[in-house]
C-alpha cells in the first residue's frame, strides 16, 4: 500500500514542475536574469553593443 502512495506522490511532484504557471515563472525569471546581466554588464563588448539601448531606455546610467 505504501508503495502505491510513494509512486503517486512522485507523479504529483512531477506534475507540479510541468505545470504552465511554474514553467512561465521559470522562463520569466531566467529571461530577467539574462536581460539584467546584459544591460548592466561592464564587459566592454557587451556594453558597447548595448550602449545605444541603454541610453534609449533612459533609466540605466552608464557614464
What class would the helix/strand composition place it in? mainly alpha
Globally, the shape reads elongated
The count of strands amounts to 0
Q: In this structure, how is the largest beta sheet organized? A: none
Q: Strand-residue fraction? A: under 5%
How far apart the termini lie comes to 66 Å
Order of helices and strands: HHHH
Radius of gyration of CA atoms, rounded to a whole number: 21 Å
Write up this protein.
This protein is mainly alpha-helical and 63 residues long. The chain contains 4 helices and no strands. It has helices at residues 2-17, 20-39, 44-49, 51-57. It starts with a helix and ends in a 6-residue tail after the last helix. The mean pLDDT is 79.
What's the structural blueprint in terms of helices and strands?
Elements lengths: L1 H16 L2 H20 L4 H6 L1 H7 L6
Q: Could you give a short description of this structure?
A:
The protein contains four helices and no strands. The chain is mainly α and 63 residues long. The longest helix has 20 residues, at 20-39.
Features:
single chain, 63 residues, mainly alpha, elongated
Amino acid at each position: 500500500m505504501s508503495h502505491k502512495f510513494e509512486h503517486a506522490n512522485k507523479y504529483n511532484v512531477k506534475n507540479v514542475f510541468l505545470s504552465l504557471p511554474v514553467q512561465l515563472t521559470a522562463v520569466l525569471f531566467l529571461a530577467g536574469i539574462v536581460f539584467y546581466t546584459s544591460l548592466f554588464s561592464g564587459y566592454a563588448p557587451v556594453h558597447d553593443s548595448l550602449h545605444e539601448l541603454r541610453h534609449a531606455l533612459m533609466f540605466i546610467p552608464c557614464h
